[in-house]
Design brief:
Order of helices and strands: EEEEEEEEH
Strand order of the largest sheet: 2-1-5-6
Shape: elongated
Radius of gyration: 62 Å
Number of helices: 1
Strand content: 25-35%
Structural class: alpha+beta
Number of strands: 8
Distance between the termini: 187 Å
Largest sheet: 4 strands, antiparallel
Length: 214
């Protein structure tokens, strides 16, 4: 007699007193476990197939040990990219021994969870302290003093700007006077030069007259 049962998402063909390695199950070593997802039972050539599960069928087993499976090497490579990764993996397993196969009328044992009642100590009600009344803080008048000091500075800068403007205007007036005076002096010079030839001509004429008189 054998059965096909679903254990932790995998299907196994089991018989009585056989040992099976399955994925890790919850439970202590030596504890008993039950599986009700029986898909098929073959009992002396009478086959019962579930749709998808056989109602009332069950497989009982006992946990022998928790262990790790053989190491599996996981190697990844991408050619011409210089990518190589090598990892190892060992799957957590549980070693079971099948103790009984029930074909009909099996009832799943109800596992009652034992709840530990913890004594909760009553929380002490902390009395909130009333905050003490704070004395009113006098406002400082420092910002006003700073604004009063900044006003004369602004006036001084304005006076400096006017002084610089007047100083810039004065050299322009001097340049204008010098430019107008110089051309006048140059024009007067040719007149004096023109008078000198007239006097020399008069003198030469007087000498010629004296020579004739002699």
């Amino acid at each position: 007699m054998y059965a096909i049962v679903d254990i932790a998402g995998q299907q196994f063909k089991v018989e009585k007193d056989t040992k099976v390695f399955v994925h890790r199950l919850e439970g202590i070593e030596g504890s008993k476990v039950e599986f009700d997802k029986v898909l098929l039972i073959d009992n002396d050539k009478s086959v019962v197939v579930g749709t998808p599960v056989i109602k009332g069928a069950m497989v009982k087993a006992e946990i022998i040990d928790h262990m790790k499976g053989d190491k599996v090497i996981v190697f990844k490579k991408k050619r011409r990219k210089g990518y190589k990764v090598k990892n190892g993996h060992r799957q957590h397993m549980t070693h079971l021994m099948i103790s009984e196969i029930i074909e009909k009328g099996a009832q799943k044992a109800e596992t009652k969870a034992v709840k530990e009642t913890k004594k909760v100590a009553p929380k002490a009600t902390a009395t909130k302290k009333t905050p003490a009344a704070k004395a009113p803080v006098e406002k400082k008048t420092a910002p006003k003093a700073t604004t009063a000091k900044k006003a004369p500075a602004a006036k001084a800068t304005a006076e400096k700007k006017t002084a610089t403007k007047t100083a810039a205007k004065k050299p322009a007036a001097k340049k204008a006077t010098t430019s107008t005076a110089k051309p006048a002096a140059k024009k007067a010079a040719p007149k004096t030069a023109a008078k000198k030839p007239a006097a020399s001509k008069a003198k030469s004429a007087a000498k010629k007259a004296d020579d004739k008189a002699k």
